[in-house]
Amino acid sequence: MNLEYLKTFYITVRCNSISKAAKLLHMSQPGVSIQVQALEKELDVNLLSRSNKGVKLTEEGQVVYDYAVSLLAIQDNIERQLGCIKNKQTEVVVSSCTTVGSYALPCSLYTFREKYPNVNILLDITNSSSVIKKVIDGSTRIGIIEGKPESKGIMLTKVTSDNLKLVVSPKRFKKPEISIDEFLQVPLITRETGSGTKAVIVEALEKAEANIGNANIVMEISSPEAIKSALIAGKGFSILSKLAIKKELATGTLKEVEISGIDFKADYFLVHSPDYNLKGPEKDFAEFVKSKKRGFC
């Protein structure tokens, strides 16, 4: 299979447009069409349905696209590793859940680099569900996730724990504690489905015989920073890891509100594929993150 044609197909799907893909790839529109058609001819299937509204994957196209994600990631990893050998450096890709990747790992990476100056860590920050998917499909070797998933395709090692807290602007709300029923009525801003934070919240509520579906969710936002901005502006309440709200609690721009009878506790895990043995710098980084020398921010 021609990987150049596969990449053109992949970019076209991501852009949902042959013209946009052509601009991104610095090609002509006919050139993009020719490469996609050549891939279709090679595989003897129709991959895309084309219309004035853009392109749409066929059933066969969806299968090829799913494999393209993994194959192109592996190609990128090969090229990166070969480049590192030429430059006498090693790169390790680490995919991390948003909370740890944004608020804990930056300091750890600095400390790790001081100890291993010839190792570059490429930090990919996404939600826990995406981290697991990337570990399983081989596009990343090491991941850090929030919460313990049901997936059996990964190896888990607990790294640390943290408490999640309901927070709000002190200008909006004064009470230090509310009941579960009161909590279900407040305007709640949550992380997106797929995030470890939301999964932890859902599980804790279920243990308290409450349902997140009954909560007054006014927004779902993938960025903790954006959520905090909305909270500080007085737009609602949210449950966030203390790692993410350390500064705001210290300065008083946000305040904790206890929920009677519920504790939100998140465990964070190092993950990798059971079919792959970490070695060299990957193993060094994994051992470092599990140690007390990791120096989380």
Low-confidence stretches: none
Secondary-structure element order, as H and E? HHHEEHEHHEHEEEHEHEHEHEEH
Radius of gyration over C-alpha positions, nearest whole angstrom:
23 Å
Largest sheet entry: 8 strands, mixed
End-to-end span in angstroms? Answer: 45 Å
Shape: globular
Number of domains: 3
Mean pLDDT, to the nearest integer, reads 89
Structural class: alpha/beta
Name the beta content range: 15-25%
What is the name of the CATH architecture of the largest domain? 3-Layer(aba) Sandwich
Keywords:
alpha/beta, Arc Repressor Mutant, subunit A, D-Maltodextrin-Binding Protein, domain 2, 3 domains, eight-stranded mixed beta sheet, 12 strands, 24% strand
Architecture blueprint of SSEs:
Blueprint: H1 3-15, H2 18-25, H3 29-43, E1 48-51, E2 54-57, H4 59-86, E3 90-97, H5 98-103, H6 105-115, E4 119-126, H7 128-137, E5 142-146, E6 155-168, E7 177-178, H8 180-183, E8 187-190, H9 196-207, E9 216-220, H10 224-232, E10 238-241, H11 242-251, E11 255-259, E12 264-272, H12 280-290
Parallel strand pairs: 3-4, 3-5, 7-11, 8-9
Antiparallel strand pairs: 1-2, 5-12, 6-10, 6-11, 6-12
Helix pairs in contact: 1-2, 1-3, 1-4, 2-3
Report what the structure shows.
The protein is an alpha/beta fold. The protein has three domains: 3-76, Winged helix-like DNA-binding domain superfamily/Winged helix DNA-binding domain (Arc Repressor Mutant, subunit A, Orthogonal Bundle); 79-157 and 268-294, Periplasmic binding protein-like II (D-Maltodextrin-Binding Protein, domain 2, 3-Layer(aba) Sandwich), CATH 3.40.190.10; 160-266, D-Maltodextrin-Binding Protein, domain 2. Helix content is 46%, strand content 24%. The chain has helices spanning 3-15, 18-25, 29-43, 59-86, 98-103, 105-115, 128-137, 180-183, 196-207, 224-232, 242-251, 280-290; strands at 48-51, 54-57, 90-97, 119-126, 142-146, 155-168, 177-178, 187-190, 216-220, 238-241, 255-259, 264-272. Strands 3, 4, 5, 6, 7, 10, 11 and 12 form an eight-stranded mixed β-sheet that branches. Helix 9 links the parallel strand 8 and strand 9 (216-220). Helix 1 (3-15) crosses helix 2, helix 1 (3-15) crosses helix 3 and helix 2 (18-25) packs across helix 3. It is globular and about 65 Å long. The termini are far apart.
